[in-house]
């Protein structure tokens, strides 16, 4: 009979009997003296372990180590040699995939099958960028008459990665893999809410042959460890995934040093359901949006814009679909796990209450199951939502779905674009002309047609408006983890002609 894995077994697999170190520098863990940040199992509210916060000295040492590694080895290593190491990292992740998935499930609360998919995606990022590490090319540009030019794509140097708690390992690998492929070195600060799977892979990177200092890690909170890292004068580029408020603060700090940023700052992604859409497929997309990480996903479609002729039936069917979903501990592999923290749980409950107070109808959900102790919430569907309601304006980051009706295509586009966000959008229609026309009109970094979600490591993602700057995934990510240099070369000047009476001419 299969036994449910325990959190203790998952922790001891990677960290032994000791608490995880708050820093990993030069290929080895480092004990830190900062305050301990408790790491909670959101399914039970029990404390899994504590991770000591990295000190200012730890952060400085991590950046110095990464800079040394960049200048002495990694920058000048052949792309094919970097690729070999990245492929080895992918293999190391796959070899420990099940244990990493178990650890991430306890850390984040997400269902085990979702963690397994995330770990597989983590490995896939390294495989994808290993395949292009020796193919980061510039271009040749013909000049006018007497010169020609070529361009080079060069690494920045030390890149800081500040990663979120909802999909900690895969989102860390999403940024770190192209960074390393391009020749940068990195310092990672995982979220203090869910740092364990990120810290666990540090040793795997070293065992796979990644040179000391190429990828260092420092644990801690954003206002302390994160701010120290962002402000460090030797950090040449910053990547952050998280809230708009924190992203703006990071951008302000980066502006003080004129340092570039990749920012993915969330979304309020609309999906337009036209009257000719495949109704059942569109219903499934609306329901499944609350399943991924219990709705704690930046790209989740959380505003369903449905043609008025089918809106009432559509809302009822989405409510019916989510009411059949199971809720429980992620390690039991239910459809939905808990929310990540008590703070997040209270935020989502307040958002649902505001929607009802503003006049929306709560069709189903939004309550805590009586038989569960953690931060659980049954998935909620609200109909009769207006686009000016708080529940339609703010990113809730929970298992909450809103249905908004529209009269015609122009109104649908206006409603979809009436948002400070622009990360992702969806379209459901059986008319190919309508699909492409809407894709052009929607203000979003990614538009998904007739299926949501979809895409993989090869498809670029990123935001319009307050959803962020830069692009992740695909070959496009390499443009944001390299800087462009143009080299202009003059042609050799023609030999100077000598007149017959030129006394400088040889006899």
Write up this protein.
With 507 residues, this protein is α/β, with parallel strands linked by helices. The strands form 4 sheets. An 8-stranded mixed β-sheet has the order 2-1-9-8-7-10-11-19, sandwiched between helices. It has a 7-stranded mixed β-sheet with strand order 14-15-16-13-12-17-18, with helices on both faces. It has a 3-stranded antiparallel β-sheet with strand order 5-6-20. α3 runs antiparallel to α5 and α5 runs parallel beside α6 (168-181). The protein has helices spanning 7-15, 56-74, 79-95, 97-108, 112-130, 168-181, 196-207, 222-231, 244-257, 279-288, 311-323, 342-357, 390-393, 409-417, 432-441, 476-480, and strands at 23-25, 28-30, 36-40, 47-52, 140-142, 147-155, 158-162, 185-189, 215-218, 235-241, 260-264, 269-273, 301-307, 361-364, 380-383, 400-406, 424-428, 446-449, 468-469, 482-490. It folds into 2 domains: 7-265 and 463-487, 3-Layer(aba) Sandwich (Aldehyde Dehydrogenase, Chain A, domain 1); 269-449, 3-Layer(aba) Sandwich (Aldehyde Dehydrogenase, Chain A, domain 2).
